[in-house]
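Format notes (please read before filing issues)

Several people have asked whether sequences and structure tokens are stored in separate files. They are not. Every record keeps both together, in the order shown below: the sequence lines, then the token lines. Line labels are part of the format and must not be stripped during preprocessing.
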Amino acid sequence: MKVADLLEEKTYCDGEMIIEEGENGDCFYIVENGKVICLQKYEDDKPPGCVATLSPGDYFGERALLLDCRRACTVTAGTYFDLIMSKIIGGIIYSWER
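Then the structure lines:
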């Protein structure tokens, strides 16, 4: 079996939230096509600001897995796009169940 066989593809629409800042993380994502926008709150009384825009080949969500911490930012779809997502447990990649 190949690592690619354990990945699952998911499609998101423009503006759809993928992960939310502060939530627990149990998977990471690889951008297959399109783009995503990473937003982070700087101050409680202000809207979040853009800290990064990710394109095909970029990935996100690994920090929460590696450091066992909450999500550092909110990530939304910048355009209609597909992601490859995986769940990591004990160094082995398992496909995320729908």
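For reference, the curators noted about this record: The beta strands are 8-12, 17-19, 28-33, 36-40, 49-54, 59-60, 74-77, 81-89, 92-95. The CA atoms of residues 21 and 73 lie 4 Å apart.
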